[in-house]
Amino acid sequence: MTKKLLFLSLIIPFQVIFAQKNTLSDFPEGYEPKEIGKRLAYHFVDDKHELYAGRYIHYAEVSTWTGSLDYAIQTKDQKLIKLLQSRFEPFFTREKPLLPPMNHVDYNMFGGLALKLYQITNDKRYLDMGMAYADSQWEVPDNAKPEEKAWAEKGYSWQTRLWIDDMYMITSVQAEAYKVTGDPKYIDRAAKEMVLYLDEIQRPNGLFYHAPDVPYYWARGNGWMAVGMADLLTYLPEDHKDRARIMKGYLTMMESLKKYQAPGGIWNQLIDDPECWAETSGSAMFTYAFIVGIKQGWLDAKEYTPAARKAWKALVPYIDERNNVTEVCIGTGKKNDKQHYYDRPRVAGDFHGQAPFLWCIVALMEK
């Protein structure tokens, strides 16, 4: 064997190994998305309801539920689908009082769960329930406030409030309505709303303050925008008039997130503060947005795949022996005080964290 051939025979195996380590598959034992997804989804089946204001199903539970359903569909796990469907069935009878009213952006996103179940079962009860939530986001109630009516007059949802989490809450249910009806008005609504939020509240670096009067880049708040844009772009027709604007907002955000990814692989509670603590729910949302962008071809795979892989491998150890995601920031209202974000309690098993981990898992498994 010549020296050149000998050299190549030694180098090529290392190149293959390097290539494998920079893909979104072939994860080592303990990091396989399918196995972790099974743990988290079946754990959700046995978990208790999380109620909003002590009365209604919380949007974080809805998010975890839809993530579990997507996992069940991806893995063709009929047993899990039946269990998740059975968990919903009491909403038609004894648990009907837990259904959120159709008068708030956080409440209305419940409709997306019903519409996802309709796509699985073809049971019209889910369709009727889900479409009522989707349509009422644009049906102005008689007791609406003047500012709510003003948004509606401009063609936006009367529930518009320019909070960053709205761009998951509104767009998710409208996208599901589009999927089940094929009516472009639903995807048009979602896109128009997204453009408004991007124009009004996205910063030049692509990130988002928690609020206009709170100049801090809170991780999970930014996560809702990252996921909302990634999902909407997945459904939005290529020739849609708003696609270029939304893609610009998405790409600008992804570039900034890559810059602020910590050396360990995830992101901090305050994205641009290296001294702040590592937070898992926002980090999982950013990881999901990376994965979707890579697989859809929006992000340069060579540049972003190592970052997404590193993030996933950094996130998995935060799942404890009870299948709860740890280091999840609790629900957080805005406050113009940096210490406020440092001091937020961290919990295990909060649905705000369980949901985006499941989203990552499904995205990693999709071809």
Automatic annotation (TrEMBL):
Pfam families: Glyco_hydro_88. SUPFAM superfamilies: Six-hairpin glycosidases (SSF48208). GO terms for molecular function: hydrolase activity. Residues 1-19 form the signal peptide. Keywords: Hydrolase, Signal. InterPro entries: 6-hairpin_glycosidase_sf, 6hp_glycosidase-like_sf, Glyco_hydro_88, PolySaccharide_Degr_Enz. One of its GO terms (biological process) is carbohydrate metabolic process. This is Glycoside hydrolase family 88 protein.
